Amino acid sequence: MKLNKIYSAILLSTLPLTPALAAGLDRSGQSIAAFLQPGNYAEAGISVLDPKVQSNQLKINDMAEDYYFPSAAIKVQATEHISIGLLYDQPFGAESLYPSNNPVFAANGEATQVEVETHNLSALIGYQPTENWNFYAGPVYQTVQGTVSLRGLAYGGASKLGSYDINLKEDEAYGWLAGFAYQIPEIALKTAVTYRSEIKHELDTTETFGFGAIQRPNALTEVVTPQSVNIDFQTGVAANTLAFANIRWAHWDQFAVTPKFLNAASGNNLIDYSDDQWSATVGVGRKFNSHWSGSASVGYDSGAGNPVTTLGPTEGYWSLGLGAQYSPAANYFIAGGVKYLWLGDAIAQTGGKPVGQFENNYALAYGMKIGYRF
């Protein structure tokens, strides 16, 4: 495949700098950009997000925890027409901890908190019948686990769900992805459409009530991570200058986590969302010389409905990002970037009843990536 010089100006549009707590549990954005690189290619990256989610009404200064997540990919052009790849990321997750001195979300010195973690390993094989077309597909291996504690008056106090804990043990399951890409290297044009299937998990679950006094083990909880579609586009707009865009849809509508005993006690879900997620990022990248490039981008996320769960009380975001890439040699680079995110105001609810307003929320995201062509 031909590598046009302008092509290397693809910058931080591919870095996973998306916020937690917005658009359901979405984190990484599930990019496959590394697999669409020309020739043999490998990369490793890390992203860090520092959010602040607050409620003056409820006297909550910040309930969102900082988090980081890595990503890695390798792609090999096995023959002129066949490529193979392996991508790792952590696509969905949540990490929140309320102040332990606020009676709305705390009791007995313990606070409401949530931790959800996923790991994805996607194996791809691509077929390029011509220089312009690439058709690809492959299986996806995914693990999910989580723990949640509910405390305080927001959940009815200790006599109801304000003393509830759940442990969702790690479960593994499989899905698939498929897509196609079209490119014209001479003008740095490339567009790709990728579909990922939903993945259904059945997690072994232990629920406890009354600060652990009543234990309900040996139940199964269904969690279905959403199907999604990513559309990626880039094109040269001037000498050494690229315009790029990404659009993502994720099917969070009707997503719900419904533990057996919590539902029996209250008739409610632990987590649910009412709307699908739509997000978009657009930007420009420019190659300044043989070693340095830069990029700027603007992003939008619709969120997954409002009111929202108290475990992630924001609705979508707007973002502004800046990035830089240094290439000491033609075959490798180091890239870094930062984004500022205006997280949307939201009404938090439990059991369908509003608890309070969270507003003036924001986050800072940082990322670094190393890429190598071999």
Strand order of the largest sheet: 1-2-3-7-8-9-10-13-14-17-18-20-21-24
Summing up helix and strand content along with how strands pair, one would put the structural category as mainly beta
Rg (CA only): 22 Å
CATH architecture of the domain at 5-90 and 179-201 and 225-373: Beta Barrel
How would you describe the shape? globular
Level of helix content?
under 10%
How would you name the CATH homologous superfamily of the domain at 5-90 and 179-201 and 225-373? Outer membrane protein transport protein (OMPP1/FadL/TodX)
What is the number of helical segments per DSSP (H or I, 4+ residues)?
1
How would you spell out the order of helices and strands? EEEEEEEEEEEEEEEHEEEEEEEEE
Strand content: over 45%
CATH topology of the domain at 5-90 and 179-201 and 225-373, anyone?
Answer: Porin
Largest sheet: 14 strands, antiparallel, barrel
Descriptive report:
This protein is an all-beta fold and about 375 residues long. The chain has a domain at about 5-90 and about 180-200 and about 225-374: Beta Barrel (Porin), CATH 2.40.160. It is about 0% helix and about 60% strand. It has one helix at about 260-265, and strands at about 40-50, 65-75, 80-90, 95, 105, 110, 115-125, 135-150, 165-185, 190-195, 200-210, 215-225, 230-240, 240-250, 255, 270, 275-285, 290-300, 310, 315-330, 330-345, 345-350, 355-360, 360-374. The strands form four sheets. Strands 1-2-3-7-8-9-10-13-14-17-18-20-21-24 form a 14-stranded antiparallel beta barrel. A hairpin with a 4-residue loop joins strand 11 and strand 12.
